[in-house]
């Protein structure tokens, strides 16, 4: 069941029922000799959530710890803004949030990648959780050392704590903040944050992690995790070249 769910994200299909009944049950039946009906499969899908979560965490652990990381969040709207009050599918799971594109109602996928586009860590939260949340960041950046580049949303009072354990969180300053001198290497690397935008674009356009057709909040979260797992197996991840810098750790 995990294989079928993850392969759906690679298939390019936009309807899981069509994918299951016309691809899996007809063209791939020899690979899955003990198939169950579509209705029973969908009913059992919530059982996959713990295993899919652990698989994704294991894949993140396989991402190379290079000392160069980029952090960002991806908004995952679950319905149109005009239908927020009538949305019952994600009640208690989703929340109103604001991104650079405006207000939305849904979830947030917080991602950390290295320069090779490999996923290093992730967290899935309601849409109203801030990027620099003091409970979120220590878990998201746990055990990482080196340099982590993010946008202004990651300005945090935890900077000294991260720096003390060997991780420098590099962000741009807000307009009203006093300007400070920044090493040229960090300034140049800040411009390479577009790499994670390329990853977010792949998650939307190729792996279909964001859409408003969910009929179950549990299966909606399952779809996001399956999309992230499918991305980890993607051969053509975007990447950049990073010059060697002096490290903060041995």
UniProtKB/TrEMBL annotation:
Please tell me the species this chain comes from: Spirosoma profusum
Q: Which Pfam families match?
A: DDE_Tnp_1_3
Q: What is this protein called?
A: IS982 family transposase
Q: Which residues form the Transposase DDE domain?
A: 63-216
């Amino acid at each position: 069941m995990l294989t079928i769910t993850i392969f759906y994200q690679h298939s390019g299909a936009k309807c899981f029922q069509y994918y299951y009944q016309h691809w899996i049950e007809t063209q791939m039946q020899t690979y899955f000799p003990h198939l169950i009906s579509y209705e029973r499969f969908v009913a059992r899908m919530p059982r996959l959530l713990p295993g899919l979560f652990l698989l994704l965490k294991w894949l993140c652990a396989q991402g190379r710890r290079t000392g160069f990381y980029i952090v960002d969040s991806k908004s995952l709207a679950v319905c149109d803004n005009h239908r927020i009050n009538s949305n019952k599918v994600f009640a208690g799971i989703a929340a109103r949030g604001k991104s650079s594109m405006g207000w939305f109602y849904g979830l947030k996928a917080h991602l950390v990648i290295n320069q090779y586009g490999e996923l290093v860590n992730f967290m899935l939260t309601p849409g109203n959780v801030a990027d620099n949340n003091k409970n979120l960041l220590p878990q998201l950046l746990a055990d990482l050392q080196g340099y982590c580049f993010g946008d202004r949303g990651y300005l945090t009072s935890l900077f000294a704590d991260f720096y003390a354990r060997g991780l420098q969180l590099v962000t741009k300053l807000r307009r009203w903040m006093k300007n400070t001198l920044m090493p040229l290497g960090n300034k140049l690397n800040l411009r390479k944050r577009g790499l994670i935008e390329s990853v977010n674009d792949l998650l939307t356009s190729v792996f279909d992690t964001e859409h408003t057709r969910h009929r179950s909040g549990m299966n909606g979260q399952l779809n996001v995790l399956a999309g992230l797992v499918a991305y980890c197996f993607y051969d053509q991840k975007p990447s950049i070249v990073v010059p060697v810098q002096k490290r903060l750790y041995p």
